[in-house]
Amino acid sequence: MADAVRTQGLYKRFGQQVAVGGVDLVVPRGSFAGLVGPNGAGKTTTLSMVTGLLRPDGGRIEIDGHNVWTDPVGVKAHIGVLPEGLRLFERLSGRELLMYGGQLRGIPLDEVGRRADELLKVMDLVEAQDKLVVDYSTGMRKKIGLAAALLHNPGVLFLDEPFEGVDPVSANTLIEVLRRYTASGSTVVFSSHVMDLVERLCDWVSVMNRGLVVAQGPLDDVRRGRTLNEAFLDLVGVRGNGEEGLSWLGSPA
Ligand SMILES: Nc1ncnc2c1ncn2[C@@H]1O[C@H](COP(=O)(O)OP(=O)(O)OP(=O)(O)O)[C@@H](O)[C@H]1O
Q1: Pocket flag, ligand 1, residue 43 (CB < 6 Å)
Q2: How far apart (Å, rounded) are the C-alpha atoms in residues 206 and 222?
Q3: Do 78 and 156 touch, CB atoms closer than 8 A?
Q4: Does domain 5-237 have CATH number 3.40.640.10?
Q5: Residues 6+ away with beta carbon under 8 Å from 79
Q6: For position 248, what pLDDT does the model report?
Q7: How far is the CA of 211 from the centre of ligand 1 (A)?
Q8: How many A from CA of 19 to the centre of ligand 1?
């Protein structure tokens, strides 16, 4: 059976800056997978290429065995994406956003309505469903974005920092929804800086540093008896950032 995600030698450069320098990312089907790495490691660039939002300079990407760049429509029908920056249709209400997205995906209108109602309820957005998305808080935007990404029941779901700005109660709800989703054989790939969360949720982890995957596999293989945070610091190297130079900071005269 094909992996949910498999890239080979994925490469992207912005001018002189190599953002992704030959990434072999693997995520088995049915995984709850975490993509971690320090700021600037190349996570967003990798996810953007994998989801067909950014054209790679080199390499191959397959999702459930389908090539992302030779079969873009087929692949996009099969995936859900919560992108970084959450570009949403700001002048639609939350409910309109789901109705519009569902119809764009070709789902019959009454079925879209049924799914939208259920998702709004699970995401605790029923009261805010008629408010314009532009007036949503950060956490509400994440939740409506996730609802929109789930509406067509994708086989693989890609989430860039899905829990950022989401309150703990809503985060638990999102986690329950995602757990149920992976339990049925679908795959979640999400990027996060919160190691405790990745450790708690994920059964598969890919660690990126400086544009490369430096460790990848089942959570316990990557941790090797350490906490994920310790493993992460060992893998990416604790950086001396010259903080000893901040002698003027604190204790005002
Ligand atoms: N559009 C762009 N133009 C120029 N450089 C870019 C662009 N997008 C990303 N980069 C550079 O590519 C590198 C990887 O960035 P990327 O956003 O993929 O990292 P990241 O791992 O997602 O970081 P973070 O955790 O901070 O979100 C960085 O050095 C960044 O400055």
Answers
A1: yes
A2: 8
A3: yes
A4: no
A5: 51, 63, 154, 155, 156, 157, 158
A6: 79
A7: 9
A8: 6
